[in-house]
Design a protein that fits this description.
The protein is α/β, with parallel strands linked by helices. It has three domains: 99 residues, no CATH class; 54 residues, no CATH class; 165 residues, Rossmann fold (3-Layer(aba) Sandwich), CATH 3.40.50.11990. It is built from 17 helices and eleven strands. The protein has a six-stranded mixed sheet with strand order 7-8-6-9-10-11, sandwiched between helices. Helix 16 links the parallel strand 9 and strand 10. Helix 5 packs across helix 6 and helix 12 crosses helix 17. The radius of gyration is 26 Å and the shape is globular. InterPro entries: Cdc73/Parafibromin (IPR007852), CDC73_C (IPR031336), CDC73_C_sf (IPR038103). Keywords: Nucleus, Transcription. It is found in: Nucleus.
Length: 403
Amino acid sequence: MTSSISLLRTAIISKKAIKLIPEGATISDAKELAIEGQPLLSLDEQTGFVNQEDNVNEALRAVYQCWIHHEASTTDYLADCEKNSIAVINFLERTELNSYLSGSSDTCKYLATSDGNKKLEAAGTTTSTENRTNGKKSTSKRGETSESSLGEMHKRQKIIDSDPFLKSVLENEREIVDHNSALRGSKPVKFANLAKECEYKIVRPLKRETGSSRDSGSKAHRHHHQEHVDPHSLSVVLKHKDPIIILSPSASALINLGNVKNFLENGKFVDTSIEATQGSAGSQNVVEIVRNSKKFNRKIKFLVVSDVDRFFTKPEHWDRVVAVFTTGQEWQFKNYRYSRPNILFQKVKGFYVHYNEDLIPPSIKGWNLEVIPIERSRRFRDKQTSEHLWEILEKFMATKGYK
């Protein structure tokens, strides 16, 4: 029998009509998925896609929710999942799943029932199906071993012993730490930064509003304003204040305080390891850059810093950060508000600038960075590269509410 995720993939590739049943229902209220030319699929049916976060076989509802938001930002996807009480699939797994569903990739390593999987997994799936057909209902919770699971293990071992080739393959396999476990580590998580963020973004604004509301007319006006303006949007945070760009303090960084103004304002890149411009940067803590933005139809002043310990004396400085340049070294984020790169670059736009023939470190591929290649010798390309970087940054600022 063809799995539900395979039917969904086939429908997406062939651009067949897909709709929720009952019609007009939201993803959380719908019961079934209707695909043109196919029987109705239950949204609660397991798909074989295993969420590595908690080792759960996800239902069709979570998989279809992921596809619905394949062009949306991570923030919008997380917000909609929370609103509809649907399981969240992390960034790397979601990217691979969407590539598989769209047909860009023929396989998905998180899909237990995808083509090309080991015979061992196929045998386990068949055994589980036979047990359900015979009316054997599993009552064990995740992580508990029951008699039926022990029986499955014996059957799987029997299949392995009967196939010498499969046995030799399994003997050479080794388990590796998954991406999330490697990033999480064993240290306890501290939420001091979250408490500060709540203090400055929620508690203090509420106190100011309470103190300034003197009459019912002003209260009604403020309530109407709050319904239309997000207090956390950049248009509110950066009102009468300049946005901030953080550079990497690393000596290997191509963009530093000595050449950033020339590159971002004039579209000219100067290699500070060759020309003696670094000396002028050594006496500077902050560089001001003025951008004549066509997207926002006005001039915008940006403050560029590299030493956050010296410049970021108030928590509100972090609210004004719109971009971070990095060389891929995690020590750079040690004293940041968000010290984990995969969280930091969901809040601000991240850039990795490198010479186009240099290799990109594999560690940054899961950080959601924009990779900006620079020509080593052809300087006429610098203006195009600079404008491309500005286009990405201004588009990000617009999505965050900047006007």
